[in-house]
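Hey, can you fold this one?
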Amino acid sequence: QVQLVESGGGLVQAGGSLRLSCVASGRTFSGYVMGWFRQAPGKEREFVARINWSGGSTYYSDSVKGRFTISRDVAKNTLYLQMNSLKPEDTAVYYCTASYGGTYWGQGTQVTVSS
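Sure. Predicted structure:
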């Protein structure tokens, strides 16, 4: 059973930084695509970034490109999202995902950016 546990969310002022972590367990993730999504109040869930677990190639949404960096530590089975230059519109619940055919979701971690 795949488990994804996020941490690192919190309250930060605009312009600040946070690093989210997601510990993945339950299997080896070779061949998986790991990612981050977010959902703001009253809005649909949206894609943020993804990374190929094996090769490390990355892809970002236009809204976070240049500000956020997705990375992984294969030895620790941990996915990261470094978020810099945060904006109030980045306020959302952030979810970690693991995809290989179907998609597993974490429980989410709240990020709040104050203006």
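The radius of gyration is 13 Å. Let me know if you want another pass with a different chain boundary.
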